[in-house]
Design brief:
261 residues, 40% helix, alpha/beta
């Protein structure tokens, strides 16, 4: 989807959910003294400005990380990465998932990132430098081609724009294929929770084909009047030990956003 740019949505509540979970998972996996592979199918530009015109236009960051940063103690992996990113790039810088991964991983780990949008790809390459291999190709094709990766331990993040309706049919097929090729890999699929629930059939297919997968969803008030996203979901195959407890902790934080009755 070459029209999609995440700058309009960076730092929103879905990012808080996804990125807090991702930072925790990678931080946990990096404790073990064995190298990791990190693969991301729809990487975006890696670094965002929350005072940019795009963020101001939607107001999503203002209702997201700028509102809830105090949920996270200073030693939470997400908070540490936010702090390090702001120290290097300014107080209103925000790390996308490639930057989170780059800061969570170690020199011996490997990163492969895919991004098709020409401007986003150029920005991603500039932000990553030599820290990752940046591919300008279809991310699902890349993920299938690279799995099983070397090193074999690792995590794949699939985070599409979901603006192509066929993705809801094609993505479960791809996840099933990748899980078969890479049975030890941690596969993390993010999806939005929208009013008309286009994800429902997709989740039924995933839970049928990958019954060991873990589903974690949070809900939140719309960022603005008429905004269709009311929650964020993760479907995780082979989650790291302790993910359930971290997911429950995140659920408790998001529950505080429920409208007062």
């Amino acid at each position: 989807m070459l029209s999609y740019q995440h700058a309009y949505h960076a730092g929103n509540l879905a990012d808080v959910h996804k990125h807090a979970a991702l930072a925790w998972m990678l931080g946990y996996m990096a404790r073990k003294p064995k190298p990791l592979s990190y693969i991301e199918s729809h990487a975006g530009r890696a670094l965002y400005r929350l005072d940019a015109a795009e963020a101001a236009k939607t107001g999503e960051a203002a209702q997201g990380i700028l509102k809830v940063a105090d949920w996270f103690d200073a030693d939470h992996p997400y908070a540490r990465i936010l702090s390090a990113t702001r120290a290097e790039h300014g107080p209103l810088a925000y790390p996308g998932s490639p930057e989170i991964a780059a800061r969570a991983l170690r020199p011996e780990d490997r990163m492969h990132l895919a991004e098709l949008h020409p401007q986003e790809h150029a920005a991603l390459q500039a932000a990553m430098g030599h820290r990752a291999k940046v591919h300008r190709r279809d991310g699902i094709e890349m993920a299938i081609a690279l799995t099983p990766p070397e090193p074999r331990r690792g995590l794949l993040l699939i985070d599409p724009s979901w603006e192509i309706k066929d993705e809801y049919r094609a993505i479960p097929q791809a996840v099933r294929r990748i899980a078969k090729r890479w049975p030890v890999g941690c596969i993390v699929l993010w999806y939005p929770i929208l009013r008309d629930a286009p994800h429902a059939a997709m989740l039924r297919a995933l839970e049928r084909d990958l019954p060991e997968g873990v589903r974690h969803e949070v809900t939140f008030p719309p960022a603005r009047a008429g905004h269709g996203m009311t929650g964020s979901g993760l479907f995780v195959v082979n989650p790291p030990y302790g993910f359930h407890a971290q997911a429950q902790w995140l659920s408790a934080r998001f529950a505080t956003l429920a409208p007062q009755r």
